[in-house]
Structures are given as C-alpha cells and as structure tokens.
Amino acid sequence: MSPLRRLLVLVRPVRWWLVLAVLAASGALVASVALMTAAPYLLSKAPLVTGFAALSVAVTAVRAFAIARASLRYVERTVTHSTALRILTELRTNVYRAVERLSPGDLPEGRSGDLLARIDADVDSLDVFFVRGLVPVVAACVGSVVACVILGVLDPRLAILLAVGLAIVGVGVPLAARAASGTAAARLVEARGRLHADLAEQIDGMADLIAFGADTEAMARDAALAGDIRDAQRRRARVLGAASGSAVLVAGLAGIACLWLAIPEVRAGDIAGTFLAVVPLVAFASFEGVIPLGDAARQIQVSRAAAERTFALADTRPRILEPAGPSRPLVDTSVAFRNVSFRYAPDAPPALADLSFDLPAGARIGLVGASGAGKSTVVSLLLRFWDPDSGSIEVGGADHRDHRLEELRAVFGGVPQHPYLFNGTFRDNLLLAEGTADDTAIQSACERAQLGRFLTSLPEGLDTPVGENGLKLSGGERQRVAVARLFLRDAPVVVLDEATANLDGPTERALLRELDAFARGRTALIVTHRPAPLDLVDRVVRLGRSAS
Amino acid sequence: MVDRVFLRGGTTATVRVAVVLTVGLIGLRAVLTAAADVAGEAAAASAVHAVRGRLTRAVFALGPSFARAERAGELVRLGGEGVENVGPFITRFRPARVSAVVLPPIVAVLVLVLDPWSVLVLVVAGPLLVLLLSLIGRRVRTATERRERELSWTSAYFLDVLRGLPTLKMFGRSSEQAGTIEAVGRRNADTTMDVLRTAFQTTLVLEWGATAATALVAIEMSVRLLGGDVAFARALAVLLLTPEFFAPLRRLSAEYHTGPAGLASASRILEVLDASARVAEPESAVAVPEGAAIRFDDVSVSYGDGGRPALRRLTLEIPRGGSVAVVGASGAGKSTIASVLERFVEPDDGLVTVDGVDLTELDPRSWRARIAYVSQHPSLFSGTVAANLRLARPDAADEELWDALATAASDGFVRALPRGLATQVGEAGIRLSGGERQRLALARAFLRDAPILILDEATSHLDEATQDRVLDGLADRMRGRTVLLIAHRLEVARLADVVAVMDGGRVVESGPPDRLRRTGTAFRELALAFADEGVR
C-alpha cells in the first residue's frame, strides 16, 4: 500500500471530523464565491431597485456570507489541526511500539541514531499532509464544482471555460512546476540531510576537530553544503514564482474571457444584465480555492517522503522474535554457549567463532581476551539483542529463544560497558531498575556502588539532574550509577561488561569488594580486559581474536 | 466596463479598449506577483545562508566546552531548522508587517478622493482592529514560547527514550514507555491547539471586523445610490477598494505564526553569536615561542554551571622536552588541564605560560598546531580510516599512516579490515571496538608529529598485552617532546619523568615515579590499589 494511502487509513477513526473540516472549508469557499456574487449583485441592482426591502435582503445576504466565511474558516482550521494532532499522537505511539520490538541488528548499521532522531521530526511534519494537503484539495474540488454550476446555469460555455482555467491553475501549473523543480527539490532535501548529519558529527567531535586544526576545513564543508542549499532554494524560488505568476495570469484571463463571452449574451437578453458583474467575480473567487493546490501538491509530496520513512521503520520485521509456543519456565539460572558463531553483518568478519562454555547456576566465570575478541558480543547475544548465526545459547536449561523476551531479560542484572543514563535526576535513573525502591534502598545501593561521597557533594543529592545522556558525569561516575542499578535490581544472574574500567584504583577495589559480596549466591559472568576483576571469578574463559 | 455594457447598452466593440487594458493589467499583476515571490524567496535563501555561516563560525569559536554544556542536540537543531525559521520571518512576516503599516493609509487616501464619507468607516474600524490584533498577538507570543519549550523538551525526551532503548529493555521497562509517549503527545497536542486556536481567533475577529466595515460601506453606498448621491462607477470602486484596506492586516494575521517561531529561533541564534563575540581572539597575537616549557601558576577553573571548581589554584610545570603524568581519582580535575592547554576553557584565575609567554596571548590556531592531543573520548568521523588519520596531517603519505598505525599497535587490525585504510568508519561505517577506536586516535596523534603530546586516558580501553605494545611505541614517541600524560593507571604513569597526584582540583604530591612510590602517601594509596595488577 502506498504511504499516502496508509496515511488515509489512519484517518478512518476520525474521518467524520475530517469530513466536517472539508465541509467547512468548502463552505468557506462557497461563502467566498457567494459573497463576491452578492456584493456586485447588490450594487448592480441598486440603480434599478425602487423598493428598499429588496435591497436590505441583499445587504443581509452579503453580511451573512462574509461572516459565514470567516466562521467556517475558523471551524475548518481548528478541526483540521486538532484532528491531525490526534492522528499523529496515535501514529507516534504506534511507531514507538514498533521500534520497541526491534533490536540493534534490525536497523541499518551505524545509522540507527540518525534514523531515530529523524523519526520524531518526520511524524511531526506529517501534519501538513492533513492541514495543507488533504483538506485544501478536497475543498478546492467542491468549490470549483459549485462555481462551474453557477456559471453553467447562466451559460454552459462559461462553465467549460472556467473548468479549463481551473484545471490549468490547479493541475497543469503545479505539474509543470514540479517537473521544472524536480532536481532542485531533491538536491535541497539531500543537502539539508547531509548538513544535518555533518553538524551533528562535528558538534560531537568538535574537540578533535579544533585540536587538529581541522575546524576550518569542516566549516568550509558546511559552507559548501549551505551554498548548495541556497542555490537549490533560489532555483526552486524561480520556479515557484513563475508558477504563482502563471496562476494569477490564467485566473485573470479566464475571468476576462468569461466576461467577453457573456457580453453578447447580455445584449441578446439570454443573461440578465444584473448577472453580468457576477460572472468574472465568480470566476475570480473560484480560483481562490485552486491557487493553493500547487502548494498542497508540494506538501503532499514532502509528506510522502516522511510517511515512507515512518512506515518503513514501523514495518521493519523484528529479527529477534518471541517464542512461537508457550514460554518455557526457567529451571535454574545456569547459562551455556554451545558452538556459537556470529557475525554482525554477512560481509563482516566473524565476531564469535564456535564459542562454547558452561556457566552452571551459582558459578562465576571471567571472560577475557584482546580488544575486539568479541567479549561484548557475548553479552549482547546473552541478552538476545542479537541471535547467533549458528549454535545455541541455553539459559535455565533450555534454548534461550524458548523464553519470552521479558522473562529472559528479567533473569539478568547487567552493567554495560557504556551505561546509558536518561536525561533526568539520579533518582529517576536508579528507579528505572526497581520502580518501587524507597529512599533507604536507593541510598544503600549508592553507598555500596561507591557513589555515596559523590552524591553528598552534590547540592541536590539524588535529585540532581545528570544531563543529556548523563554527560555531566564522568565515565567512572556513570559506571557506578549502573552498578547501583544492578544492586537495586537484585536479579539472579550478574553480567558485568568492563564495569570498573574507568575507575581509579582505590574506588575500583572498594567497588569490587561490594560486587563480590553481591554476587554471592548468584550466577555471574564478568567481562574484563584487566586482571583485577578476575579475583571474583572461579574460572576464566579466554576468547581468541577470531578474525585475522 | 460592466457599467458601460449594463447601463449604457454597450457592445463588445465598445469595451474592446477596456478589455485590452484589463488584460494588460492582469499580465502586469502576474509578472509582479512572480517577481515578488522570487525576490522574497531568494532574499530568504540568502539571509538563511548568511545566518547559517555566522552561526557555524560562532559555534566553532565557542568550542567543545560550550557545545557540550549547551546540549549538542539543540545546537544541531538550531543550525538546521532553527536557521530556516528565520527565512519566513524575514521574507513573509516582516514584509507583511510593513505592508500592514503602509498600504491601508494609501487605500484610505484613494477612498477619500473617491468618496469622503466612506473613509469615516475605515478610519474608525482600522485602528480599532489593529489595537485588538496587538492585544491578542501578545497572548499568542507567550503561548508560542511555551509551546516551543515544550516541543523541544518532548523531542529530546523521545530521542532519549529511543537511544536508551536497550537499557529500558534490560530493565523490562520499554513497553510501558508507550503510555508515557502517548500522554506526552496528548499534552503537546493540547498546548499546540491552545496556540493555534488563539491565532485563529485573531483571524476570525479580524474577518468579522473587516466584514462589518465592508458591509457598512456597502449599505451606505447603496442608500446613497438610491438617493442618487454617487455615480455607479464610483460606488463600485469604493466597494472594491474597501476589502483592500483590510487585506494587508489579514495577511499579517495569517503570517503571524511565522513571527514568533522565527523570533524565538532568531533570539537563540543571537545568544550564541553574542556568546562567541565575548571569546573574540586577541587582536595582535604573540608569535608562538619555539620551545614548549609549560607552567600553570595558581590556575583555577570552573565550568560556570554552579558545580565544583575543576581546578583550584593548581600549580604544575612541564619542562621543555620533559614529561609529567597526572594521576588521581576520577573527578580530580585531570582532564581540565588538557582542556586549558587546548584553550577549550579559559582559567578564571591564575596564569598559564609557554616559555614565559601568557597562553591567552598566543594565536590559538598556531598554538594548537604544536600539540598532538588524544582526548578522553576521541571521535571518528564519517569517512575512511585514512581520512580520519589525515585529520592530523593532511599531506601524510600512506607509508607514514602505516608507520603511525604500527606505533599504536593497530596496523594488524586495520590490515584485517575489509578495505584496509579505505574502510569506512564513523556513523555509517564499520563497527569498531572501544579499544580499536582508541588506538586509531593514538595513531592519529602520532602522525601529527608535534613537539607537544597530550594523552588523556588514551589506553583505558586496551587489554594488557595491547597496552604494553602501545606503551613501547609511546615511550619512543615521547623522546624529545614535551608530554602530558593523564592516567588513572600506574603503568602509564611510569613512563613519565614526574608524576603529579591530583585531588580536588590541585596537585597534592609530585616527584619522580620511583621516589614517589617510596615516600608519597597519596601515591602509595593509589599504588596499593593497583598492587594486584602488579605494578613493578
């Protein structure tokens, strides 16, 4: 199904609201046409009319039409916007639900951040599809038909003339403009996207750029892209200017042509003289609804791209699937890798080759190996962020693909190599691990994670914000927050991935003592490239570099 | 024309001249409309371009400490759509405001000439509507500002949730976020509707006012036509001109939404530009001295966010060709020393000198050219491995790249990459481990071949065997250079002539590594912690 049709499907639950909006918009156009018709009629009538009563009817009609137009526009805009916002709120939630089912391997490599960053903007931008696309198009159609009918009653030739003019302005001109600006529009979108990606990367890596004196070069690249954007915009501006000029020209000529046709009719007595002024004005008014169609077509086009990206993401089929049958109960907390091989992409070097090890319930294993040997991959596979290409992983005595994902992950308490902290307070970030934890539990977890002194040094303690992605904290502080989460979570299997790599000696020693105490009676997998954490384990599994 | 056909029984022939004239006018109007559109859009494009250039330069001038504290996401947004918002503000809102001021009086004068009585209506209705508009406009503005804040908060929140999805999944908390996202979305929709409704009400009020005034004129004209006071042509002209009196005001109210959004972006951009103007480079920079003896004298630094000061009256000396290792607990202020030397932050107090010359008097660009620096979180950029290395020295030959890679113990893994030096890395590129990224950053610094070397935790992600190989290469590269090593691991510190132990933003102990190990209490405390790692 095309992305635009799918947007229309989203409309279904609120379709009556949109029908109301279209009715109001068409009504406003009709009122506009009627206003233009009634006012000159009133004037034309005046010299002939003798009775004041007939005149006041016309005057009342003029006022009624004008106020109706304004009120109907108000209804249209309010209803369209609020309906669009409702549809988009729903869509955003659905996209989140879809993305939530995905794992890192389902997204194009490396681009995940960019993709996700764009999704919010994409969903937001879809409101133009409804507000400036759908409703104006339908309303213009209704308005055009009404105008043609009015003129058709006077003389069918007038209706045909008007219809041709409307078609040129509403369909012909936008199509021509699109053909003329096709490449410019595409270049504009591309240059904007590249500039956005470049800026994000440069701001992120600014320290390195400046330190190496590469900032001038980076700015030059930005300036070149900005220049492309400006040139494409100027080109597009010329096309759009030509389009709006032609629309004005055609609308004017059609009005005059209608008048020209009507003059002999008045002479012949086929059209009442009082209607003569009505003819060009109806024509002009009906163009009012059609001239925005070029813009509407462009907006729909823009929405199409955004809708395509949004639905593509929402449609991505998760590679990591829930078990087909009922979830197997976990017998114990043992973990085993059986001949596991894995690559991140078909053309990537193998990250793990034929790895086997046993981690019985209650045992502790240290996983060591050179950097790049696949230590972190083992953790990702264990938590089922990826599935192995061959071999199997057993948790609790059964293939871990037989457990429901949520039940499986509930078994593990982990400290990742680069812990993610959410932009909230320390308390928010800790409550994530155990929503019902009270202050005493949180305090104790922080003490044991060696955060106690640090937290008391903060003016607001636990309620201090950690900044975007915890950026106000050092690597070591973030790791300790992750350890405090581990303590709060209280899960039976402990997985530490370089949990103490960024800590200085004394802190690391104290933290390892606490981790040792915590791991008592639990199953533990400790990934490290350094010897200190290995004091905690019973056995060491060494990973060889599988590539090269 | 209508007048002539309708009232005086004219034929098509009698109005031919008028028709030709009208067609000419329509053509002129079409050309003018097109020209106005093209000129407006082109002007917007140029304005956006100019603002964008200045903003980029300002952000770079402010440097990484600003870009980080200032929320990188917001800066990217400002450089993208924020700048583009300024375009419509300049080309649509401002002209609309000008024509709302200029055109109505002109129309009023025309009407005055045609029919003095009708002007009365316009003169009363016009100012009344303007007053009303400005009152509602103020309300729209505050509501828009609130909405902008809420929206940027929401998109930051959404992005935060998406980025942290693996973490949420680990804690089994990812599915419940859907509810929060929906609730936040609903609240946003409500705020947005508040703003829009107020804006639409403005338009409605304006329409009602304009309509009422037009109707008044129509009635007045009709009555006077009946009385035979005015000519038909004149009455028609007045009636057609009356809506033109209100048209610029209506356009202004239709463009009102571009105003606040553009204004909000513009004021944020101005804030950044102003901030960058304050860090203006010295007019006449002193030539960078040949040597590289570095001295910190009572230097204090705080990041100005109300947090703890990062350096507290720090005194430290790195003699020319000598090396100092700075060790200490995390948060002791070690990285800030590197940031001060790279001039990413300026000291609040105290003096940093290079061969006796105040660091702030040097041209930052030529000063940085003398440093090879590996930051704590080095970045790789979208591009090939080679391009990332050549950042340090654009004219380096391939052999020199391999040489630097070998010194950083990374020639092996680069050779194993699918396309060697030409392999794409960064956002769109191949997945590298933390250790591999770190070694590429080291190779980049070695390639730089600068007289000063600053390494900030440059081996923290390496396993012991790899680190040993890297340290061998490093020891070789340190010869003859002035070196600052920042470390929390003592194997690295042993390479330096002098070790300085930091705590709370100052040096608490310093001396040669061997002597410090025997006598330094703070150092022994650190060393003890590493005893099990076998500090030899």
Give the SSE layout.
The complex is a heterodimer of chains A (548) and B (536).
Chain A (H helix, E strand, L loop, with lengths): L2 H9 L3 H31 L6 H49 L11 H14 L1 H28 L1 H49 L1 H6 L3 H54 L9 H13 L2 H23 L19 E9 L6 E10 L4 E6 L5 H8 L7 E6 L2 E2 L5 H6 L1 E4 L10 H6 L7 H10 L3 H6 L17 H15 L3 E5 L7 H15 L3 E5 L11 E5 L5
Parallel strand pairs in A: 3-8, 3-9, 6-7, 7-8
Antiparallel strand pairs in A: 1-2, 1-4, 4-5
Chain B lengths: L1 H7 L7 H54 L2 H43 L1 H48 L1 H6 L6 H51 L4 H23 L3 H21 L15 E8 L9 E8 L4 E6 L5 H8 L7 E6 L2 E2 L5 H5 L2 E4 L8 E2 H6 L7 H10 L3 H6 L7 E2 L8 H15 L3 E5 L7 H15 L3 E5 L3 H4 L4 E6 L2 E6 L1 H7 L1 H9 L7
Parallel strand pairs in B: 3-10, 3-11, 6-9, 9-10
Antiparallel strand pairs in B: 1-2, 1-4, 4-5, 7-8, 11-12
> Quick one: CATH class of the largest domain in chain A?
Mainly Alpha
Number of strands of chain B: 12
* Biggest β-sheet: strands ordered side by side in the sheet of chain B: 6-9-10-3-11-12
* CATH architecture descriptor name of the largest domain in chain A: Up-down Bundle
What is the strand tally of chain A?
A: 9
Mean pLDDT of chain B: 81
Residues in helix, % of chain A: 55-70%
Question: Tell me, what's the shape of chain B?
Answer: elongated
Let me know the average pLDDT of chain A: 83
Any low-confidence stretches of chain A, pLDDT <50, length ≥5? none
Instruction: Report the uncertain regions of chain B.
Output: 531-536
Work out the radius of gyration of chain A.
Answer: 34 Å
Structural class of chain A, by secondary structure, is alpha/beta
Shape of chain A: elongated
CATH C-level class of the largest domain in chain B is Mainly Alpha
What do these coordinates show?
The complex is a heterodimer of chains A (548) and B (536). Chain A has 17 helices and nine strands. Chain A has helices spanning 3-11, 15-45, 52-100, 112-125, 127-154, 156-204, 206-211, 215-268, 278-290, 293-315, 375-382, 405-410, 426-431, 439-448, 452-457, 475-489, 505-519; strands spanning 335-343, 350-359, 364-369, 390-395, 398-399, 412-415, 493-497, 523-527, 539-543. In chain A, the strands form two sheets. Chain A has a five-stranded parallel beta sheet, sandwiched between helices. In chain A, strands 2-1-4-5 form a four-stranded antiparallel beta sheet, covered by helices on one side. In chain A, α2 runs parallel beside α5 (127-154) and α5 packs antiparallel against α10 (293-315). Chain B is of the alpha/beta class. Chain B has two domains: 2-278, ABC transporter type 1, transmembrane domain (ABC transporter transmembrane region fold), CATH 1.20.1560.10; 294-533, P-loop containing nucleotide triphosphate hydrolases (Rossmann fold, 3-Layer(aba) Sandwich). Chain B has 18 helices and twelve strands. A six-stranded mixed beta sheet of chain B has the order 6-9-10-3-11-12, with helices on both faces. In chain B, strands 2-1-4-5 form a four-stranded antiparallel beta sheet, with helices on one face. Chain B has a two-stranded antiparallel sheet with strand order 7-8. The longest helix of chain B is centred in the first third of the chain and has 54 residues, at 16-69. The chains are: A alpha/beta (548), B alpha/beta (536). At the A-B interface, α2, α3, α4, α6 and α7 of A face α1, α2, α3, α4 and α5 of B.
